[in-house]
Task: inverse folding
């Protein structure tokens, strides 16, 4: 499982001209599911996304990463992105052999979103398999790549 996690001031996803998910301060998560991912990877990734300290403590004002999205009461926008498993090592066209099939990926993606919603934070999503436009107002910018392989 791969997640590009971005600290944002705001983010939204649009499908066919309609905004279907929109958040304020929080995290934008671009989520790729591999063919070997299981619930263990989902659990680890959800916990990591919720607990990773990427926000400064406003009281200290030191700019350090002291608080998680949970601690600031932030919001999450979760967008499926199979292209995170694009292999560009050979040729000119990416190979997506490591990505899960759409049926499996959608099921795991929905489980991942459900795990994030258990936090009580506002969680918005894109539309699985749709052509989406994602507007991201990156804060910092702060962008991390999280990866968890099946064990």
Result:
């Amino acid at each position: 499982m791969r997640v590009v996690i971005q600290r944002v001031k705001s983010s939204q996803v649009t499908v066919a001209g309609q905004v279907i998910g929109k958040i304020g301060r929080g995290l934008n998560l671009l989520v790729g599911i591999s063919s070997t991912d299981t619930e263990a990877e989902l659990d680890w990734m959800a916990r990591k996304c919720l607990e990773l300290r990427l926000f400064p403590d406003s009281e200290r004002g030191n700019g350090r990463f002291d608080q998680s999205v949970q601690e600031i009461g932030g919001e999450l926008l979760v967008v499926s992105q199979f292209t995170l498993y694009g292999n560009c090592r050979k040729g000119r066209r990416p190979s997506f052999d490591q990505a899960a099939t759409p049926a499996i990926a959608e099921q795991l993606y929905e489980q991942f979103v459900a795990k994030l919603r258990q936090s009580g934070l506002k969680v918005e999503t894109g539309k699985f398999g749709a052509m989406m436009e994602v507007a991201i107002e990156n804060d910092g910018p702060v962008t991390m790549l999280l990866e968890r392989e099946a064990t």
